[in-house]
TrEMBL record:
A GO term, aspect molecular function: cyclic-guanylate-specific phosphodiesterase activity
Protein name (record): Bifunctional diguanylate cyclase/phosphodiesterase
Domain GGDEF: 222-353
Originating organism: Salinimonas iocasae
Domain EAL: 362-615
Domain of life: Bacteria
Keyword check for NAD: no
The entry's keywords: Membrane, Transmembrane, Transmembrane helix
Matching InterPro entries: Cyclic-di-GMP_PDE-like, EAL_dom, EAL_sf, GGDEF_dom, Nucleotide_cyclase, Rev_trsase/Diguanyl_cyclase
Signal peptide positions on this chain: none
Length: 624
């Protein structure tokens, strides 16, 4: 599961932490507030008391003015107490010129207060007092001592109000935190659901994605089947028509899968043009029927705008629990089966243990392609093409073999698809074409010119630098251009007919020959034969295998031969293995034959032996 989704899920304690943080923050704020408030209260108490005492001192000074001006009156005890009774009761002692004018009656006679020399607060026997002393204009010092007012009650009232305010602030903070945490939790839950959906749903097709398949699907103790689908010609269409068209094609295909599926089937887009279908509780004897139904439905044209695409697919099948118990294992096994179905053009392949070995070998081969090309481990073998009329050798097809140091001599079915999926397809094609041209030159110098056909990939048709490369190669080698022939598969030419037509015309201008391989198995129509202007059509082996026994195949072949001849196009029949096939094809006026009946692919030395013998390859066969 993605890291961001795990992060959201692991943060389930966010609400609790937010609440705790808010409480701690509110407590901190309240503590600071109370401390500052209490400190200010103490300072305010002293300031207010000092201000009040100083005002009373001025009143005392005014009241005692006659006494101060008349020294005799100082000793008059009757005057002072009566006039001072209107002053604050907190005055304890009044002294003028160090003579006591007034003493609070409540103050014990023996109580002696030693005031400060300067005005201010002082403590005596645990009590707090305030003294204010000043020298009057007459030169006499006037000193007044007060008992410090007890502000405890006032402080308690203020503190109680501060406590109430702090309590209210605390609970307001807690409730605010609860409301905020609930709101944020809901937002996170919504975001979590959206992230889960984004993490499990493919944005383009809206199907479940690979992550959902591998993390959310539970198949424990269930019987069922995985079907791994790969679109056959999607990459060609994507490269030729652009990614936008490719995306539209994928969406259209996924919609078709939805229409084909029932409530039990689960659909997944695994990656790119690969899809996985999980069918639970399907009996083993029904798996292949379902797979073939799926295969035939996928071969129906996909209509996108005004265009119709016949892409088809290859399907690999893995069944639970026969082929595994874990989703990862079953999907991997189904993918291995699909790769074999695609490589061998089987349409459908059920997994077996041999495929696992082949998959391991394939991974190894894929990693060795580039070094193999650099070390020239790829070699050209040549399969004879025979003129069915006179039995003479009329040309050869160059077939690549990989002389692998560990696996031995590998046929193209083991690595061609890997090369086309890699980044060396253009370099590989140049390598094979250059090898073929060198061999053509060798035979031409020997006086035995031999046409050689080289297979091209659909990717080579998209290579704008390929025609200039061939032109330079022809010029440097000096061979007769018509001895070099390029074979294009029918499906490759149909990816983009305009591009194919342009490339074939360019080859024709250089004097090369061109042919369409595997004709009759793809999605082209006979009208394209007129557009493409090729020299040869190679009938697919599927029409030749049963031609002697199946009259329908024979009639189809006869019709295609007749049509091609009317268009001045020669016909080659592939896959000939029996004499009766040769006899029938000759009677149908087929021009050329190719297959194991005439010879397997052989190194150039094998063709040299045929050329040096100067014997008819079919002399014995034609006389039978």
């Amino acid at each position: 599961m993605p890291d961001n989704l795990e992060l959201v899920k692991s943060d389930s304690s966010l609400r609790r932490r937010l609440l705790l943080g808010s409480i701690l923050l509110s407590l901190l704020v309240i503590t600071i507030f109370c401390y500052v408030g209490y400190s200010l209260l103490l300072e305010m108490e002293k300031d207010l008391e000092r201000q009040a005492f100083e005002e009373q001192y001025a009143d005392v000074q005014t009241l005692l003015a006659p006494v101060i001006e008349n020294d005799d009156s100082v000793s008059s005890p009757s005057l002072v107490p009566r006039d001072l009774s209107i002053l604050a009761e907190d005055i304890l002692i009044i002294e003028l010129d160090n003579q006591e004018l007034y003493r609070d009656p409540r103050l014990a006679p023996q109580t002696y207060l030693q005031p400060l020399k300067q005005s201010g607060f002082f403590e005596e026997s645990g009590d707090e007092y305030y003294v204010h002393s000043n020298v009057l204009p007459s030169g006499k010092p006037l000193t007044v001592i007060w008992r410090s007012v007890d502000m405890q009650k006032i402080s308690e009232r203020v503190i109680s109000r501060l406590s109430v305010a702090a309590f209210l602030t605390f609970w307001l903070s807690v409730w605010s935190a609860l409301i905020m945490s609930a709101f944020i939790a809901r937002r996170f839950e919504s975001a979590n659901r959206n992230l889960e959906k984004m993490a499990l749903i493919d944005n383009l097709t809206k199907l479940y994605n690979r992550n959902a398949l591998l993390t959310s699907l539970d198949i424990q103790e269930k019987q069922g089947a995985f079907m791994f689908l790969d679109l056959d010609r999607f990459r060609d269409i994507n490269d030729a028509l652009g990614h936008d068209m490719g995306d539209k094609l994928l969406k259209a295909f996924s919609q078709r899968l939805r229409l084909m599926s029932d409530n039990t089937m689960q659909l997944y887009r695994y990656r790119s043009d690969e899809f996985v279908i999980w069918i639970p509780n399907i009996p083993s004897d029904e798996v292949m029927n379902r797979a073939f139904t799926l295969l035939y439905e996928c071969r129906e044209p996909l209509n996108i705008g005004k265009s119709a695409f016949e892409i088809g697919c290859s399907i690999g099948v893995a069944c639970a629990p026969e082929h595994g118990h874990l989703v990862e294992t079953l999907v991997q096994n189904a993918e291995n089966a699909m790769l074999r179905a695609k490589r061998m053009r089987l349409g459908i392949q059920v997994y077996n243990e041999r495929l696992a070995y082949n998959s391991t070998v394939e991974v190894t081969l894929r990693s060795q392609l580039r070094s193999a090309l650099q070390q020239k481990q790829f070699e050209l073998y040549y399969q004879p093409k025979v003129n069915l009329i006179n039995g003479e050798l009329s040309g050869v097809e160059a077939i690549v073999r990989w002389n692998h140091p560990d696996e031995g001599l590998l046929p193209p079915g083991h690595f061609i698809d890997l090369i086309e999926q890699s980044g060396i397809v253009h370099a590989f094609t140049r390598y094979t074409v250059e090898w073929a041209v060198n061999q053509i030159k060798t035979w031409e110098v020997q006086g035995t010119p031999m046409p050689v056909a080289v297979n091209l990939s659909a990717y080579n048709l998209m290579d704008n630098a390929f025609v200039p490369f061939v032109e330079r190669l022809l010029a440097s080698s000096g061979i007769t251009p018509s001895l070099l022939e390029f074979e294009l598969t029918e499906s490759a030419t149909m990816v983009d007919v305009a591009v194919s037509k342009r490339m074939i015309n360019a080859f024709n201008r250089l004097g090369l020959k061109t042919s369409i391989d595997d004709f009759g198995t793809g999605m082209s129509s006979f009208a394209y034969l007129r557009e493409l202007n090729v020299h040869t059509i190679k009938l697919d082996r599927a029409f030749i295998m049963n031609i002697a026994e199946n009259t329908k195949d024979a009639r189809i072949v006869e019709a295609m031969i007749s049509l091609c001849h009317n268009l001045d196009i020669r016909v080659v029949a592939e896959g000939i293995e029996q004499q009766n096939q040769v006899t029938l094809l000759r009677s149908l006026n087929c021009d050329t034959g190719q297959g194991y009946f005439f010879g397997k692919p052989t190194p150039a030395g094998g063709i040299d032996a045929l050329l040096s013998a100067r014997e008819s390859v079919m002399v014995n066969s034609l006389t039978k």
